[in-house]
Q: What sequence folds into this?
DNA sequence: ACCGTTATTCTGAGTCGCTCACAATAAGAC
DNA sequence: GTCTTATTGTGAGCGACTCAGAATAACGGT
């Protein structure tokens, strides 16, 4: 447990669902000389130890969070990219009973809900045709992962 | 509807869950001069039209399949990387009722079941400690996406 | 059939996110 | 306080994909 690891862990703890690149900037507040590669290594190590969980949505760098051991899921706003944690819907192991597993023994199910978050929905109501480009262009006050 | 697009479509149809790179080689049986970039463009176009569906598991290039309109899911063997289609378990829209959506209106749920397929399970039974490295190293007789 | 317009494909370079090999450094054990 | 091992830092490199722009091919009208 080095100071770099603790710094990365607290950075992720404070900024859930952050990509590695953001973690670097957060950690550099404390350790200005830490390198990008070290952060990648530390993130991978902590993920192996299951102190962190890595979440890889499409078209996005991998995001890290500290809720690692419980098997929760994620809701992803397709407009602004916001991500929220979602607990299992149906009991403990929700989607763990697929209809036909082709002989596979299932370990876990990763669920990604795609939807539109409240703020994006209200800002789209005024617009005649919603402009998905605005989402990627300007993450205004709250960045993609800062909420 | 050009011959390139038809060739790509049939290639994906014949080789479900194939990455773009493999599609290139398949298509080149018919159109030896097609370029990698064209295949990428065609795959993106066909995905937009919803003639294809793009599936992006972690640590793997994007895979394409022709079952595009139905919202089915995938089971992924964590040892050999084999992928099987899985229909919805609980009714029509299985995991579409998360416990707390944080104000998001959910459009769809993508589910990835992680497990171990039958052949990997039987080959691991002999081994004292299962060696996950072998998985990435040698996809033995059946390649990662050829099954 | 010919021509023009638009969509599709090709060429070649470039980007992003991440990984690798290896040297330098720091942390814990004796 | 040294020694050994784990952790960081350095710098290059890779895979998968994207982009800008030129060349080509597919329709639609005459």
A:
């Amino acid at each position: 447990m080095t100071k770099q690891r603790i710094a990365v862990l607290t950075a992720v703890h404070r900024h859930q669902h952050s990509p590695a690149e953001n973690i670097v900037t957060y950690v550099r507040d404390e350790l200005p000389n830490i390198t990008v590669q070290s952060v990648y290594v530390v993130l991978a190590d902590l993920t192996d130890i299951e102190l962190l969980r890595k979440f890889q949505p499409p078209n996005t760098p991998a995001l890290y969070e500290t809720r690692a051991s419980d098997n929760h899921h994620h809701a992803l706003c397709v407009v602004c990219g916001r991500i929220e944690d979602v607990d299992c819907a149906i009991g403990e192991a929700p989607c763990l009973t697929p209809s036909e597993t082709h002989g596979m023994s299932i370990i876990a199910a990763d669920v990604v809900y795609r939807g539109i978050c409240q703020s994006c929905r209200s800002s789209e109501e005024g617009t005649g045709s919603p402009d998905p480009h605005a989402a990627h262009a300007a993450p205004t006050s709250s960045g993609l992962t800062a909420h």
